[in-house]
Amino acid sequence: MTQRPLKKTRAGFTLIELLVVIAIIGVLASISFPVYNKILLKSRELHAKNDAVGLVNAVKAFYTEYGVYPFELSASEDTVMRETDAEFMAILLGEEEGSEGSQKLNRRDIAFFSADPAKNGKKGIDLEGNFLDPWGQQYRVYMDGDFNSKMTIDDVGDGRNTTVQTDMRSEVEAVSAGVPRSSASGVEANFEDGNEQKTW
Question: Could you tell me which residues come within 8 angstroms of residue 69 by beta carbon, excluding any fewer than 6 positions away?
Answer without folding.
Answer: 59, 62, 63, 80, 143, 144, 145, 172
